[in-house]
Amino acid sequence: MLTDGSFDNITKKERLTLSRDKDKMEKVLGGIAQLGRVPAALFIVDIGHEHIALAEAKRLGIQTFGMVDTNCDPNKVDFAIPANDDATKSIAIITNYITAAIAEGLQERQAAKDDDVDDANADENEKKAQRLLAEAEAEAARGGRSRTASGTQQPQKRRVPGGASRRPGGQGGGGR
């Protein structure tokens, strides 16, 4: 309605109502709208109260973790955590523990990726060094440049077409 202009044709009260509804939906569902992919798991504090989210996760095939009280069926979630889902202290303790476990897992995953990248870089560097060594040996076999005992490179003498003698005046032996 905001883009097609029909928002201007309704009354002020209807505009306010629609604006409030839009703001409420953005507040409640804004994070979900920004998701780039389906999450791998869903943590639910009260599976009895959040039964719609639980059903949606089951329909999408998302793993579910949930705090289960005595008034809920633990078979509805994949991983049930027996706890009092009404007490804020209990919720805080369990969510802090799960958050710390997730952070530790992410750090381990990043460390494993860094090790894989380091191994891949070491392999690439070794292959590059072998290739450069092979190129240097091939160039030495062709006679491009020779190395002296001190390790410095000296250009080899080249033949000039048209004669090998040097004329006074610094010109090589070819035509004038």
Helix-strand category = mainly alpha
Helix content: 40-55%
Spatial shape: flat
**Spatial arrangement of strands, main beta sheet:** 1-2-3
Rounded Rg = 37 Å
Largest sheet: 3 strands, parallel
SSE series? HEHEEHEE
Q: Count every helix, treating DSSP H or I runs of 4 or more residues as helices.
A: 3
Strand content: 5-15%
State the end-to-end CA separation. 87 Å
Overall residue-averaged pLDDT value: 79
Low-confidence parts: 146-150
Short description:
The protein is mainly alpha-helical. It has helices at 12-33, 51-60, 88-142, and strands at residues 41-44, 63-68, 79-82, 145-147, 153-155. It is 49% helix and 11% strand.
What do you see in this structure?
The protein has helices at residues 12-33, 51-60, 88-142; strands at residues 41-44, 63-68, 79-82, 145-147, 153-155. With 176 residues, the chain is mainly alpha-helical. The protein contains 3 helices and 5 strands; from the N terminus they run H-E-H-E-E-H-E-E. Helices cover 49% and strands 11% of the residues. A 3-stranded parallel beta sheet has the order 1-2-3, covered by helices on one side. A two-stranded antiparallel ribbon has the order 4-5.
